[in-house]
């Protein structure tokens, strides 16, 4: 008897129960959607702030070096006497100031040939003299930061143009590495940044 009453109740109010469950599910999905959008906006802002902070830091760090370069432009310090950290800093300044990372073919050989270093010495400067595992990892970081800056400052450029300008061989490589590094796609990043700057 009790079971019959329960079955009759369920039949009578089944559509109400289903409607309540569907409404709860829709509310949950909506909440998750907006939570993800909020997180993406916060992440986008953090990426931009990080890139801007690093650019300002490098610019401030570069000013004394630029003054020293003006005094004696032709003199190259004795690279053989530098520690790994000092050599990394020297090479980092050259790579950033001359924007060598924008050349898709840029590699360790160019630094070896230009400064008459061994490939092991250049490798050690990045592996032991910095928090980067290697020169390619550092160059990739420079390219991604440059690409992120272009996504903000050049809204008319396509992703493919930004990838090429930043030194990537293809836009797919740029998009994949951008997502790996920042956990958001370049397109999502650009949309979030455009919304925050409007």
CATH homologous superfamily heading: Homeodomain-like
- Sheet-strand content, in percent, reads under 5%
What is the residue-averaged pLDDT? Answer: 81
Main structural class:
mainly alpha
Query: What is the CATH topology?
Result: Arc Repressor Mutant, subunit A
What does this structure look like?
- By secondary structure, the protein is mostly helical.
- The chain has a single domain, classed as Orthogonal Bundle (Arc Repressor Mutant, subunit A), CATH 1.10.10.60.
- Helices cover 76% and strands 0% of the residues.
- The protein has eight helices and no strands.
- It has helices at residues 2-71, 84-97, 108-115, 119-127, 135-153, 159-165, 171-182, 186-197.
- The protein starts with a helix and ends with a helix.
- The mean pLDDT is 81.
Summarize the structure.
The chain is mostly helical.
For this entry, give a set of tags.
198 residues, mainly alpha, elongated, Arc Repressor Mutant, subunit A, 8 helices
Topology of helices and strands:
Elements: H1 2-71, H2 84-97, H3 108-115, H4 119-127, H5 135-153, H6 159-165, H7 171-182, H8 186-197
Helix pairs in contact: 1-8, 2-4, 5-6, 6-7
